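Box 3.1. Reading complex inputs
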Amino acid sequence: MTPGTRTAIVTGAARGIGLAVSERLIADGWTIAACDMLEDRLREEAARLGDSYRPYRLDVTSENDVNTVCERIAEENPPVLGLVNNAGVTRDSLLMRMDAEAWDLVLKVNLTGAFLMTKAVSRQMMRRRAGSIVNLSSVVALVGSAGQANYAASKGGLIGFTKSLARELASRNIRVNAIAPGFIETEMTLSLPEEVRKGYAERIPLGRMGKPSDIAEVTAFLLGDASSYVNGIVIPVDGGLST
Amino acid sequence: MSLENRVTEIIVNKLGVRAEEVSAEANFQTDLGADSLDLVELMMDFEDSFKLKISDEDSSSLKSVGDVIKYLKAHGVEE
């Protein structure tokens, strides 16, 4: 790909998987519209990564914010042909202790956020008759996770969302796929108790936790032309955890 | 160019039909072969060309070429 000819929007791009994905896509020649709530972190990474990493402060749960920022991104960058819906939060607790607020917030960020972003961006992609969308689901959508009913529901929702849009947008040459990361070393998983993390690692056939770069490689594949006949699938990237 | 001609031009470009087929009575889906995504895109094109916003509710009632012309006129689009 000629550098500077395609833009990919990445949500949650300031750290963790979103940051690793951004760096990997830049290596492929993508311009990254890096969206996140964490403005300071975005600015720091922009200083490190240079002009291909363009920071946009964005709250994916605000329809107004999403529409305004996506319009700005379209005006200020090369054609938007990629979208990575990665922004996500956890509010873990057992069902009996889970309040409606924790449920709503996780669904809103992880699932509604992807809906709002995809709606805003697909409009631009439809016009160009080209695009690839990758939704970051999770292994817990496939196998469940005690204490994460809200998170698992949101990530499972993303799989149905992915498969429906794969059918809906295919005639416009827009592909939609999902990745189900397993246990990846990020700030999100480091916040889990040590014994929980150890327990997970022991159940992973490959015997180790994944790195953000493991997810970034598969994202780059799904977003790029190498996967041009791949549509509507969920790729687990979990060291065998879900098998 | 008249409003009718501008609308016809947009439809011809989007759906690849001949201008003669685009009569006021022509239904986008049954007469002009549009699928549901074509309809969404057509509405987007009308919005851009005539600088207005067509709500999802309104757009579902715009089934024929004549419906669109009437709608545009009612929303202040001049000839």
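In summary: Residues 31 and 74 of chain B are 24 Å apart (CA to CA).
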